[in-house]
C-alpha cells in the first residue's frame, strides 16, 4: 500500500492494522484495499506463509493439471494431487481452501465499506461501481474454484452439497458465529449466487481497462465458463456473442503468454519482478525445463504428446531453439515454454482467454445441433496452429455429434495445456457421464527419458480414478470443521 498512497506522505503503518474507518476514508487507500484482493489471489497463503502460488498462482495451475492426465508429475511436490492421495489434513487441498476463503473475505470487506465511502464523498459513483464490480467478480471467481474442487459437478446433481458461499466479511469477533453458520447449501445455490454476483458485476464494471483488473468482459467470460458447467448451452452462446466484437484469438498461439495484453487475454493475475508469488509460486520455475535453470516439477505427459489427435506439425508443439517456441526439450522429457522467466518470476497467471470462450461456444453449438457453427468456431482456434499440409475440419469429418464434441474437448486439451484447465473439464464431463472419472496417467516419477516422447516405448500408467470414488473431489479441511465451534459443516462422504 505504501507504493499506492500519495507520494507527498509516506505512510508506514501496516495495511493490516489500519482501522476500517481510516482505510475507507481516503480514495488511495480504498484502491489499495481493492488491490489487496488481487494480492491475496496472486500470492496466496500456505502453511502460514504467503508467496506459494495459492490460490491463483503456479500452485493452483498445477493442481488443475495434476488432477488430470495431460501434464506429468515428476517429483514429490504435487504427488498427493497427482496420485489422488489427499485427505482432510494434506497441505495441497487445504492450502487452496484457506487461500480462497482468505481472498473472499478481503473481497467482502471491500464490498461492505464502499457505500459509506460513496455517501461521504470519498468516492464517485463510477469509482464505487468499479470497485464493487471488481470485488464481486473476484468473489465469484474464488467461489467457483471452490465448488469445482470440493463439490460434485452441477452436471450430475445440482442438489448435491455445495460449499459455503460467503457474502459478508468476518473482521470482528461478533461476526465469527454468523460466519460459522453459513452452511454448504447445494451446488444449485452456489451457481445461483455466482450468476447473481456476475450479473451485477457485468452491469457496473467499466468496459475499458486491461486484462489485469476486472472489467465488464471479465464478468462476461466467467459467466460463460459457469454456464458451460451448468450445461446452459444457449447461455454460453449469449455470453460469447457479447465478447466476439472486441476479442479474438491471436494468430500466433504463443502471444497471450508474452505480455498478457493481447486480443485473447480477458483476465490474468499480473506478476512483476517486484511483486510475484515467489520461487515456489512461479509458473516458469515449476513448469520450466531444469536444463534452463527451472525446478521442472511438472512436464508435458507423453500421453498427450503421442496422442493421435495432436498433429506433429502443430505450432503448439514447436520446440524452443534459437527463436521462441511452445515446448522446451530436455533429456528428461518435454516441458512447456509458455512460461519463461525463472529469474524474476514475471510470467502472468492467465485465468481466462477468449480462446476458451470460443471453444465453449463451439461445444455449445454442437450440443444444440448447430454443426456448421460448431465446426467454424473449432477451426478458428485449431487452424492458426496446424501445419499448412493439414486441412480444416468440415462437418463430414465427424460421424456423429459426439465425435464433434470429442474433437472440441481434445482441442481444449491441446490449447490449454499447462494452464490448469484439464481438471475442470474432467469434473463436468464425468458428472455428465461422458467421462468415467479421472483417466489413467503416466505413473508418477517413471517418465525419466525423452524416448517416452520420441519413440513407441510403452508408457507405464496408473492413478486412474472412478467418478464414483470419494477421492474424485477433495475433502473439507479438518481444521475448518474442528475450529467451527457452533455449526460445523459436513464433510464430503468417504473422508
TrEMBL record:
Signal peptide bounds: none
Top-rank lineage group of the source organism: Bacteria
CDD domains (alphabetical): SusD (cd08977)
Keywords attached to this entry: Cell outer membrane, Membrane, Signal
Main location: membrane
Record InterPro entries: SusD-like_N, SusD_RagB_dom, TPR-like_helical_dom_sf
Subcellular location: Cell outer membrane
Domain SusD-like N-terminal, residue spans: 60-228
A Pfam family it matches: SusD_RagB
Assigned protein family: Belongs to the SusD family.
Protein name: Carbohydrate-binding protein SusD
Organism the protein comes from: Rhodonellum psychrophilum GCM71 = DSM 17998
Record lineage: Bacteria, Pseudomonadati, Bacteroidota, Cytophagia, Cytophagales
